[in-house]
Design brief:
510 residues; TIM Barrel; 2 domains; 14 strands; 35% helix; 12% strand; globular
Length: 510
């Protein structure tokens, strides 16, 4: 494969800091079309004899990903983010031709690059058109010396303090969320959370020339990811309230839960007709007892993520603050997340200021006033000011609505459907819940459904049993729930909230 045309185009459109001059690219559509045609004419799958080595195959797919990304962006330019395209499926739509095959960007990244090459440095070579991505390379990737090129690209990425900053005083490493999004690629053979964190530290030490012992035991903290377009005409803009990405992920090899929701009931100061747990001023509330909090500490990894939700937690702000202090006193060192509608801004800020390891996630619909009464102006202004002064502490949730709770049978706008964003219609596989009624429930979206399908245990249940039951629930999702929902032509959330009794129970331990 000759990448001369691709290199010549990159030399003209990539700036010294690795951004793209899309105006200049738009003037050179014919050159880009010619490059795209070359990728369509041949690929490692259509012409395997032409790509004899791993390096030749890897170079092809790295270049194809980057070229296809630019082609998809320029087709809709001007845009401000790859998440703001016409169909919402920027990464999922199979619009690109590689040899004789139609592929999506997700196909290339996940099935081919990650699935076949097992080379974590690809994450610092492919560019999805976002500021949070690695800088664009002003030349094609060539098979000759490719591993050295990937090493250099990785080192350049890590030398940027936004992507990797070592805080010696507090024994923390602040890294790009790329390390979170692709956790298993850095974890080694057994992808436990502990192995993953050690893998990240090993990877960083190796590529920055650090003694591994010098960062042993450091906490890994994930920076905000800027999804704004990597446009040379656009300054990076990290708004005060940003999209929230979970910190923890599930691994069947983990010996303890990495994340746990705490649910106080569906008593709320709003009634939203799409609410997953049908919250309202007529809902119920029960405070957190010491027994509940002790069970939470016993069940969750000490450095995991504990999430308070309802209902509306700020209606009982002092109880939340007291609960956090109680948990800290018993050894919980991890992240605390509070889900809130933000209406009681002063109370939410008081919770945030009570502990430096607390973050808040605001409801997207209420914050933006979409399908909901908007956040009062005075509350929004307070939260925006506080967030600007304390970056990385307040986020907004995603705009997708789920066919759950009050919204089980609702028709949502197309751009609010999970399938529109490539999420599919299956279960989103959240971590479980401990309710203030003393039960472990398998799904935070179904916390108001009292059914043996979700009963993982209760206060006093051995944490190991709760974890085994949660693993059983995940298998039940794969083997029973999602296939049944597909067969009925509905989402898995809708099936749980309207036809759950048609399904067998998972068979939990007692």
């Amino acid at each position: 494969m000759d990448y001369t045309k691709w290199t010549r185009l990159l030399e003209k459109i990539v700036t010294p800091d690795g951004k793209v001059d899309y105006h200049r690219l738009a003037e050179r559509r014919a050159e880009l079309d010619s490059v795209i045609a070359e990728f369509a004419a041949s690929s490692p799958q259509s012409d395997p004899d032409a790509f004899a080595s791993d390096e030749e195959r890897l170079a092809y797919w790295l270049n194809a990903y980057n070229a296809f990304t630019l082609n998809a962006i320029i087709a809709e330019y001007p845009i401000t983010s790859v998440w703001k395209t016409r169909d919402g499926a920027f990464f999922q739509r199979r619009r690109h031709r590689a040899g004789a095959q139609a592929v999506s960007l997700d196909d290339i990244e996940h099935e081919i690059l990650r699935g076949k090459f097992h080379e974590p440095r690809i994450h610092f070579a492919i560019n999805c058109g976002s500021v949070g991505c690695p800088p664009m390379r002003p030349a094609a990737f060539e098979a000759s010396g490719l591993r050295d090129t990937l090493w250099a690209a990785t080192e350049r990425f890590l030398r940027n303090e936004w992507n990797c900053r070592i805080d010696r005083e507090n024994r923390r490493i602040h890294v790009s969320r790329i390390f979170k999004m692709y956790a298993e690629d850095f974890a080694g053979a057994e992808a436990t959370a502990g192995n993953y964190r050690r893998g990240v530290l090993d990877f960083i030490a190796r590529h920055l020339g650090l003694e591994r012992d010098s960062i042993d035991g450091y906490e890994v903290v994930y920076n905000i990811y800027d999804w704004g377009l990597n446009d040379s005409a656009r300054e990076p803009h990290l708004g005060p309230i940003l999209f929230h990405e979970p910190v923890e992920h599930y691994s069947a090899a983990d010996s303890e839960l990495r994340e746990l929701h705490l649910y106080e009931g569906n008593f709320c100061n709003r009634t939203c007709d799409w609410c997953t747990i049908s919250g309202s001023p007529g809902g119920w509330y029960r405070p957190y007892s010491h027994a509940i909090l002790e069970q939470a500490v016993a069940t969750l990894a000490a450095d995991g993520n504990l999430k308070f939700y309802g209902g509306e937690p700020t209606l009982h702000a002092e109880a939340i603050i007291d609960a956090i202090r109680f948990l800290r006193a018993r050894g919980f060192t991890g992240l605390v997340t509070v889900y809130s509608n933000g209406i009681k801004a002063d109370r939410l800020i008081a919770i945030l200021e009570s502990d430096p390891r607390v973050e808040a996630v605001l409801n997207y619909s209420i914050y933006h006033g979409r399908d909901a009464e908007p956040l009062p102006r005075h509350a929004k202004e307070k939260l925006d000011r506080w967030s600007a002064a304390h970056p990385g502490r307040i986020f907004k949730g995603y705009k997708v609505l789920f066919h759950a709770g009050a919204g089980a049978r609702h028709d949502f706008d197309r751009d609010r459907e999970g399938d529109y964003h490539g999420m599919g219609t299956g279960c989103v596989r959240c971590f479980p819940v401990l309710t203030t009624k003393g039960r472990f429930h398998a799904c935070p979206f179904a916390a108001e459904i009292d059914s043996p399908h979700y009963d993982l245990g209760k206060v006093g249940t051995d944490p190991a049993t709760v974890l085994r039951n949660y693993r059983t629930f995940r298998r039940w999702i794969d083997d029973t729930l999602d296939p049944a929902a597909r067969a009925r032509g509905i989402t898995s959330c809708e099936l749980c909230h309207t036809r759950l009794q048609e399904l067998p129970t998972p068979g939990f331990e007692k």
